[in-house]
């Protein structure tokens, strides 16, 4: 155990075989990320990156249910309302970790078995290898809590096929199992029952190259039979998604869905109408801008958005409705898309001067 024994239990950092292994260890809380966990992972990741005897880094979640269901947003909301620094520091340190994973010089293997949302996406999707299983449940549901798909969502979502990322970001649609691989979010698919063997085989490699690691992953991927013969769950809807979600405004996307009128389009319309209007507008712009930015530029932009959300109404109201009172009926302000002006949206993207996130 490391020297911070109290909290060291939340994340385990171990050298095993040829690898550094990070285990998110809060299974009862679906391995949700805390500031303390981020503060332990980041320096260790940097050390392993420099260590000539560490050839790869593996990250996984404890328990059967989740890889990581996100950041501990209830705590962040409470801290923000009490004007404590946590809301500034948490996002800053989390995004710095996301960038470190995106630029990591060692192969980084995320075993995204179980629920993978929000902050859990941030500590996996920017790594070189992402392994999904039949238990993987991926979503970025932030527009439903008055936030936006952060942790680099503005970078990876618009780079998915067609307008799939825009659809996932605005609706919070959940992808399961092999579909997480088919969507391009995971790089491999492995049966959950074989994950332990896969990990053992990776750890047993002797001074492996990237190719050696990829070969082991490929072998397990090829052997997996689960859902192999099914097609991508959204395949029949991709033309609709591409046409409806290619608009430059949320109002136009809604109009496109109304005009389409198919059961699928109307279902998405129902979902979007429940989301925070402010979140929908900042998210669409975040993805449009992020599509041509580097990951670092995106994270700087997202940090600005995160701080503006802390100052606003909808995030705290979303946390209340979904996580505290659990009445699932947030009262958004403004409640109507038309009332969210261009100027309102612009304010979310304003630079923070000396408080901006820098790398």
Automatic annotation (TrEMBL):
Entries under CDD domains matching the protein: crotonase-like (cd06558)
InterPro entries, per the entry: ClpP/crotonase-like_dom_sf, ECH_dom, HIBYL-CoA-H
Protein name: 3-hydroxyisobutyryl-CoA hydrolase
Function: Hydrolyzes 3-hydroxyisobutyryl-CoA (HIBYL-CoA), a saline catabolite. Has high activity toward isobutyryl-CoA. Could be an isobutyryl-CoA dehydrogenase that functions in valine catabolism. Also hydrolyzes 3-hydroxypropanoyl-CoA.
Class of the enzyme per the UniProt entry, highest EC level: hydrolase
Residue stretches making up the Enoyl-CoA hydratase/isomerase domain: 20-349
The EC number(s) this enzyme carries: 3.1.2.4
The reaction(s) this protein catalyses: 3-hydroxy-2-methylpropanoyl-CoA + H2O = 3-hydroxy-2-methylpropanoate + CoA + H(+)
Organism annotation: Castor canadensis
Gene3D superfamilies recorded: 2-enoyl-CoA Hydratase, Chain A, domain 1 (3.90.226.10)
UniProt cross-references to SUPFAM superfamilies, sorted A to Z: ClpP/crotonase
Key word Mitochondrion present: yes
Main subcellular location of this protein, as a coarse class: mitochondrion
Cell compartment(s), UniProt: Mitochondrion
GO molecular function annotations of the record: 3-hydroxyisobutyryl-CoA hydrolase activity
Keyword Nuclease attributed: no
């Amino acid at each position: 155990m490391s020297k911070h024994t109290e909290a060291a239990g939340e994340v385990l950092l171990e050298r095993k075989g040829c690898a550094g292994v990070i285990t998110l260890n809060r299974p009862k809380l679906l391995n949700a990320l805390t500031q303390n966990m981020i503060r332990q992972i980041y320096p260790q990741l940097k050390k392993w990156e420099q260590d000539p005897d560490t050839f790869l880094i593996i990250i996984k979640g404890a328990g059967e249910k989740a890889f990581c269901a996100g950041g501990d947003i209830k705590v962040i909301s409470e801290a923000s309302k009490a004007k404590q620094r946590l809301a500034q520091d948490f996002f800053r340190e989390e995004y710095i970790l996301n960038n470190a994973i995106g630029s990591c010089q060692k192969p980084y293997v995320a075993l995204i078995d179980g629920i993978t949302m929000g902050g859990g996406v941030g500590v996996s999707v920017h790594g070189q290898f992402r392994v999904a299983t039949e238990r993987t449940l991926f979503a970025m549901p932030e527009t439903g809590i008055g936030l936006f798909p952060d942790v680099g969502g503005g970078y990876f979502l618009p780079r998915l096929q067609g307008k799939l990322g825009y659809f996932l970001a605005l609706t919070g649609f959940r992808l399961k199992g092999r579909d997480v691989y088919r969507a391009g979010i995971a790089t491999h698919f492995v049966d959950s029952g074989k994950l332990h063997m896969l990990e053992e085989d990776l750890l047993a490699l002797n001074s492996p190259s990237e190719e050696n690691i990829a070969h082991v992953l490929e072998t397990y991927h090829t052997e997996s039979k689960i859902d192999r013969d099914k097609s991508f769950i959204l395949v029949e809807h991709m033309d609709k998604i591409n046409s409806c979600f290619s608009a430059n405004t949320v109002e136009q996307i809604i109009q496109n869905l109304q005009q389409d009128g198919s059961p699928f389009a109307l279902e998405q319309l129902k979902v979007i109408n429940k989301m925070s209007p402010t979140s929908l507008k900042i998210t669409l712009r975040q993805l449009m801008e992020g599509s041509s930015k580097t990951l670092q530029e995106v994270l700087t932009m997202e940090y600005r958005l995160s701080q503006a959300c802390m100052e606003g109404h909808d995030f705290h109201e979303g946390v209340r409705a979904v996580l505290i009172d659990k009445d699932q009926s947030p009262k958004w302000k403004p409640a109507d898309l038309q009332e969210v002006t261009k100027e309102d949206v612009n304010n979310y993207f304003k630079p923070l001067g000396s408080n901006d996130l820098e790398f």
